[in-house]
Amino acid sequence: MRIEAISTKEAPAAIGPYSQAVRAGGFLFLSGVIPIESSSGELVTAGIEAETATVLANISAVLAGAGLTASDVVKTTVYLSDISLFESMNKVYGEFFTRPYPARSTVEAAALPKGVAIEIDLIALLK
């Protein structure tokens, strides 16, 4: 199986030794995305709705870099620093993905990179 790293300048660069995404075996595996503004590199801390929108915009950019869209996503994992943020996150998330929605897990994490409130990773089906 061939493995290919996917990278785009339209989304924040990886902040460690990992790829933004990896194409392998008919799937795209997207690393966890946090709310970093792609143009400035600054963290977005304007509340969970703005942070979720930023994460999803960055996800969209990485998907586009692989020739995919949100409709190709089959599984997501949402990590929240506080599960009480779920309803507000879910509102924005539900505007990004359409039916059939990807499978999803949502968990509360004790700590996320850079102290953010949300991180999302996913798996998409390649075309």
Question: Can you put this structure into words, describing what you see?
Answer:
- This protein is an alpha+beta fold and 127 residues long.
- It has a single domain, classed as 2-Layer Sandwich (60s Ribosomal Protein L30, Chain: A), CATH 3.30.1330.
- Helices cover 23% and strands 29% of the residues.
- The protein has a 6-stranded mixed β-sheet, with helices on one face.
- A hairpin with a 2-residue loop joins β2 and β3 (27-33).
- α1 (48-65) runs parallel beside α2.
- The model has no long low-confidence stretch (mean pLDDT 96).
The number of distinct structural domains comes to 1
Provide the CATH architecture. Answer: 2-Layer Sandwich
Main CATH class:
Alpha Beta
Number of helices: 2
Q: What is the CATH topology assignment?
A: 60s Ribosomal Protein L30, Chain: A
The strand count comes to 6
How large is the radius of gyration?
14 Å
User: Could you give a short account of the major beta sheet?
Assistant: 6 strands, mixed
The fraction of residues in strands falls at: 25-35%
> Helical amount among residues, as a percent range?
10-25%
Structural class computed from helices and strand pairing: alpha+beta
Taken from the alpha-carbon principal axes, the silhouette is globular
- SSE succession: EEEHEHEE
The termini sit apart by 17 Å
Q: How would you state the average pLDDT, rounded?
A: 96
Strands in their spatial order, largest beta sheet: 1-2-3-6-4-5
Unreliably modeled segments: none
The name of the CATH superfamily reads RutC-like
